[in-house]
Protein: Glycerol-3-phosphate cytidylyltransferase
Organism: Lactiplantibacillus fabifermentans T30PCM01
Amino acid sequence: MTKVITYGTFDLLHKGHIRLLKRARALGDHLTVCVSTDEFNAEKGKHAYTSYEDRKYILEAIRYVDEVLPEKSWDQKIKDVVDNDIDIFVMGDDWQGKFDFLKDYCEVIYLPRTEGISTSKIKKDLGVPD
Ligand code: C2G
């Protein structure tokens, strides 16, 4: 079984997130999504509208997602890959090169982002603070 993993906040879920998850899942037989906790989001300088519990609940309902785990720190990826027998690590290419250190443990693939949509754009278009 080819296992894939990806990471993110996935706030105000939109087509760009879904397309990333769909393409990631298509690379293997199982997709684990590590969703940023509210505390880690603060570390990332992000404030998600939707709580960690609700973002987890939503992700678990997506047909392309097989398992959802918490992302609590920048430093957990190697352990996650090893402990979960991951074959492929996937991120959008806004992260191009940032996780190449994982190449010692698994394949690393950066997928093209979906243009024209982002959580920040949604908030801006709705006139709410980012
Ligand atoms: N994404 C995309 N197209 C968009 C928006 C997002 O392909 N229009 C992808 C991002 O590249 C990322 C995933 O969807 O791979 C989740 O995006 P975010 O929720 O913004 O995640 P981010 O804040 O980048 O967190 O340790 C990694 C971080 O947790 C990534």
Observations:
- Residues 7-10, 16-17, 20, 36, 71, 91-92, 94, 113-114, 117-118 surround C2G (CB under 6 Å).
